[in-house]
Automatic annotation (TrEMBL):
Entries under SUPFAM superfamilies matching the protein: NAD(P)-binding Rossmann-fold domains (SSF51735)
Record-stated family: Belongs to the short-chain dehydrogenases/reductases (SDR) family.
Pfam families documented for this protein: adh_short
Signal peptide: none
Source superkingdom: Bacteria
Organism: Larkinella punicea
Protein's name according to its UniProt entry: SDR family NAD(P)-dependent oxidoreductase
Amino acid sequence: MRLQEKVIIITGSCTGIGKAIAKRCVEEGGRVVIHGLEPELGQEVVAELGAENAVLHIEDLSVEGVAERLVALAVLTFGRLDAVVNNAALVASSNIHTTDLAFFRQILEVNTLAPFALIQAALPYLKPSKGCVLNIGSVNGWSGEPDLMAYSVSKGALMTLTRNLGDTLHREDGVRVNQINPGWVLTENEARRKHEQGLPVDWYKDVPPVFAPSGRILWPAEIAAAAVYWLADESGPISGQIIDLEQHPLIGRNPPKN
């Protein structure tokens, strides 16, 4: 039980990676605040995990005060707060020609500013527990796909936030801040998004080797397994680190042979 009695807020945990992290946290002895925008799906997650282990909060992260309400719910329900997982994100296609400032601001609000706000609201409770923050980024934060411009920029900014707070909060308050950058993961939303872009329903069964040398893309449970290390005490004093979780290197990769 690597997370015994730890209380963890996980944004965007009604589906996908966040849901997988929540399930793994409870398996490891933790208790979780489930968050998202889908009440029915969130209720299903809480029912699966048990009311003694999970509580649900449904609210858009761009709404004023949501960070404070998430923290208050954790403390009121479980009596403490040990960790925050900033997982929720808006994934929307855009490029230099299709991105206006209103859209860009919306992406940054959810993907970068909301994580900052939640860390800020949680800090008074993370300090006494010597807790931690785990930001869920993306390998796109290093440069990004042509049609994921705003999303990629928001994840690049999240990396800088992690580096900055991973140093200052650890040094001043004993709170660790780290980030994992998943590669291509088979979440419910990703499966639907690719199908809406014209791929067959079972597109993930035949992914080109250039994108998936193993023959498949990553599973949410594999990201969750990695997340536990950073949330557990076994990761020790490590802070301010960015870890890519992909099945091929992003820098120095050998070009595929024809």
